[in-house]
């Protein structure tokens, strides 16, 4: 059996009871920390809190060499864990399909993901979001500051009046000069706002910092104002709102301290 377990958003307490039970029932637990991570807990904290021995795999060890995971799942119960939800944004559908092809039973234990948390914390209605995008570090894609695919997606969402959730780049094990096992970089919302202000002008943006933490930060303002602020430790994400329903406009003022005149322009 191969069970994909989402750990939730922040620390060792963020996982569900079902996820905790799946981890404790597993013979082996594998994790990847390169697509996302629990910023409120490291692997050793997770191990101590739940009585686990976690084997961390890098990107190559999951995507190109999954044999140790699959072989273990053929003969025992294996849990494969990530932050958030293993099948939302940090998708590992390929690993699941490989397991199924080998006759291995699989299941998914879901965790809270920033996709739903961003809607919950900002008051922006989840069904008014369009396609999400990931904003990479400029060095990571070798082009201009913002890839054309990001610009096209945001503009297509705007044409339909939809919000865009912008995931911010995480680089673990790869730096500006190539592979670097000691490199960890997490794009900050201020950097993202600065980059996005170039193609989109000084429009409304909404920052969500440390969703799932006891002290998340939610802030709405012009991109230039967000670019000048320090939102603290990662992880951060950013929303570019489309047309606002009047309840959404009220929510951004009440929950994210948006300037009332700015959200009125987006209604």
Put the structure in a nutshell.
37% of the residues lie in helices and 24% in strands.
- CATH homologous superfamily assignment of the largest domain: Tetrapyrrole methylase, C-terminal domain
Provide the β-strand percentage band. Answer: 15-25%
Radius of gyration: 19 Å
Backbone shape? globular
End-to-end gap? 50 Å
Helix and strand string, N-terminal first? EHEHEHHEHEHEHHEEEHEEHEHH
- Flag low-confidence runs: none
Helix and strand content put the structural class at alpha/beta
Counting DSSP H or I runs of 4 or more residues, the number of helices is 12
| CATH level-two architecture of the largest domain | 2-Layer Sandwich
CATH class of the largest domain: Alpha Beta
Q: Any idea how many domains?
A: 2
Structure description:
The structure is a single chain. This protein is of the alpha/beta class. It has 2 domains: 2-109, 3-Layer(aba) Sandwich (Cobalt-precorrin-4 Transmethylase, domain 1); 114-266, Methyltransferase, Cobalt-precorrin-4 Transmethylase, Domain 2 (2-Layer Sandwich). It has 12 helices and 12 strands. The chain has helices at residues 17-25, 43-50, 59-63, 67-75, 93-101, 114-122, 138-141, 148-159, 189-200, 223-227, 246-256, 260-266; strands spanning 2-6, 28-32, 54-57, 78-82, 106-109, 133-135, 164-168, 170-175, 178-186, 204-209, 217-222, 236-240. α11 (246-256) runs antiparallel to α12 (260-266). The radius of gyration is 19 Å and the shape is globular.
Secondary structure layout plus pairing:
Elements: E1 2-6, H1 17-25, E2 28-32, H2 43-50, E3 54-57, H3 59-63, H4 67-75, E4 78-82, H5 93-101, E5 106-109, H6 114-122, E6 133-135, H7 138-141, H8 148-159, E7 164-168, E8 170-175, E9 178-186, H9 189-200, E10 204-209, E11 217-222, H10 223-227, E12 236-240, H11 246-256, H12 260-266
Parallel strand pairs: 1-4, 1-5, 2-3, 2-4, 6-7
Antiparallel strand pairs: 7-12, 8-9, 10-11, 10-12
């Amino acid at each position: 059996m191969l069970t994909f377990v989402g750990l939730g958003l922040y620390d060792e307490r963020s996982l569900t009871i079902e996820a905790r039970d799946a981890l404790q029932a597993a013979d082996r637990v594998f994790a990847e920390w390169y697509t996302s991570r629990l910023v409120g807990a490291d692997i050793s904290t997770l191990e101590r809190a739940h009585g686990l021995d976690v084997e961390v795999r890098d990107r190559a060890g999951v995507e190109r060499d999954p044999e140790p995971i699959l072989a273990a799942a053929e003969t025992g119960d294996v849990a494969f864990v990530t932050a958030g939800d293993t099948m939302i944004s940090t998708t590992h559908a390929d690993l699941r399909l490989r397991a199924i092809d080998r006759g291995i039973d699989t299941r998914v234990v879901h965790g809270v993901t920033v996709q739903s948390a961003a809607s919950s914390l900002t008051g922006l209605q989840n069904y008014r979001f369009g396609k999400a995008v990931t904003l990479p570090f400029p060095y990571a894609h070798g082009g201009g500051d913002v890839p054309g695919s990001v610009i096209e997606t945001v503009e297509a969402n705007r044409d339909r009046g939809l919000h865009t959730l912008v995931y911010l780049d995480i680089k673990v094990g790869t730096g500006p000069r190539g592979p670097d096992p000691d490199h960890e970089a997490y794009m900050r919302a201020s950097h993202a706002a600065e980059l996005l202000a170039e193609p989109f002008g000084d429009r409304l943006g909404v920052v969500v910092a440390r969703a799932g933490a006891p002290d998340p930060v939610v802030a709405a303002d012009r991109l230039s104002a967000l670019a000048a602020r320090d939102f603290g430790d990662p992880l951060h994400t950013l929303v570019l709102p489309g047309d606002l329903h009047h309840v959404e406009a009220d929510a951004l003022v009440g929950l994210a301290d948006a300037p009332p005149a700015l959200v009125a322009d987006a209604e």
